[in-house]
């Protein structure tokens, strides 16, 4: 039998331009990268409930779109890591760009009238998405995608810092928690890429449960999924404060953060 890293499984040969550090088909014949796949659940399930709650609360459609976009990213990433097929890679990477564009739109429209539409910003973000998509399909260079994604995240970081510094300083806890968790995921993503050979050798020598803990790309999914979810909460909290609602962050079962609010009563 070939080494775990070189096995083929149910989905056949790898056609994606990226193959991450997790050993392929090491857990099951049906999933190429098992831990990198199942770790996407944090990006799939909670945002669905967030979208449902947003509909019930009558929130602006862009926040419903934010939750659903994060779910789409999680589903695309699930398909990519399960199959390591190029088409599924695109289903993962392109929605990352589109979801971040939605996040950017929400962050820059926090202080506008309710249900207003900024057609100029909308046009710029749609055009950016189309250009990135077209170029990426042509060049098939992952670094190009990573740089474009990084630009969008950097824009979100700057806008968030502006809000917690000059507008709503009491939101620093939520804003910086979101950012810190995301950056921790980014750190582990880099460690996974740079020290892959060492990590694989280490996993051969230790019990499986310890080896699982070193699947840092899976941790990247968990931490960036949570960080992105918290960012939506931060954006939504900022928006509902401006609209004179009374938002509060609560923890379901003492663990999972959600935002609850009610409009001010009219006298």
UniProtKB/TrEMBL annotation:
Compartment(s) of residence: Membrane
Species per Swiss-Prot/TrEMBL record: Zalophus californianus
GO molecular function: metal ion binding; N-acylsphingosine amidohydrolase activity
Gene Ontology annotations of biological process type: ceramide metabolic process; phytosphingosine biosynthetic process; sphingosine biosynthetic process
Short name of any one Pfam family annotated for the protein: Ceramidase
E.C. designation(s): 3.5.1.-
Residues reported in the UniProt entry to bind Ca(2+): 19-20, 22, 24, 33
Enzyme class, spelled out: hydrolase
Binding site for Zn(2+): 81, 217, 221
Pathway terms, separated by semicolons: Sphingolipid metabolism; Lipid metabolism; sphingolipid metabolism
TM ranges: 34-52, 64-84, 96-112, 119-137, 143-162, 174-191, 218-238
Membrane topology: Multi-pass membrane protein
PANTHER family assigned: ALKALINE CERAMIDASE 3 (PTHR46187:SF3)
GO cellular component: endoplasmic reticulum membrane
Family membership: Belongs to the alkaline ceramidase family.
Cofactor(s) for this UniProt protein: Zn(2+)
Keyword Cytoplasm carried by entry: no
Function, in words: Hydrolyzes the sphingolipid ceramide into sphingosine and free fatty acid.
Listed name of the protein: Alkaline ceramidase
Catalytic activities: an N-acylsphing-4-enine + H2O = sphing-4-enine + a fatty acid; an N-acylsphinganine + H2O = sphinganine + a fatty acid; N-(9Z-octadecenoyl)-sphing-4-enine + H2O = sphing-4-enine + (9Z)-octadecenoate
Keywords assigned by UniProt, alphabetized: Calcium, Hydrolase, Lipid metabolism, Membrane, Metal-binding, Sphingolipid metabolism, Transmembrane, Transmembrane helix, Zinc
